[in-house]
Amino acid sequence: MSIRVLLIEDEPAVADFVARGLREEGCAVEWAADGDAGGRHLAAGPWDVVLLDWWLPGTDGLSLLRRFRRDGHAAPVLFLTARDAVPDRVRGLDAGADDYLCKPFAFEELLARVRALARRPGPPAPLAFADVRLDPAARRAERAGARLDLTAKEEALLAFFIRHPGEVLTRARIYEHVWDGWYDGLSNTLEVHVMELRKKLEARGPRLIHTVRGRGYRFGEPPG
Ligand code: CA
Could you tell me the distance, in angstroms and rounded to a whole number, from the CA of residue 94 to the centre of ligand 1? Predict the structure, then answer.
């Protein structure tokens, strides 16, 4: 089976060189020329490998990558970047990139990395806590065997909670991971989402998201 590659790259010369080369090697390549088209293509996967340029018109590559991972997608991402400063590479890897390649690169090296990434095992196992299950790849959540109809944000929030059972999670930390942002201490966006998620979870069982007064939330069995 051929490798399905999504190429998000705004420089036509680079995109053409990469897409042509990969097609000659038998890959199926789709090309998005800016960040916004890239976001739409990412959501329309599945992809075996994503080649993502850092600097793009519209949404930049780093933001695209963060959103892609936050939405629960596990497809391997290779960052293409002109930058070779260590902190930028670290930022890319931290945001969920699997590998990176600095421009200009040799096609042989790109091809070797694409093949290596495509050979990696599939998406991670679904997440579970008590009678709650969340399969980010399939975008499916359930409690006590009944399907929960969650928004993408609620899914991301639930995934973060399940990954950190029993911990006191401050609002700032949740904002940083789930909203990719900065908490101004004023907005009640988080509270509203927690309320909605709680409602859906509690329709099927006891409370799992506990408010820790003045600090944030704790996910798990009731205290005491
Ligand atoms: Ca670029």
Answer: 20
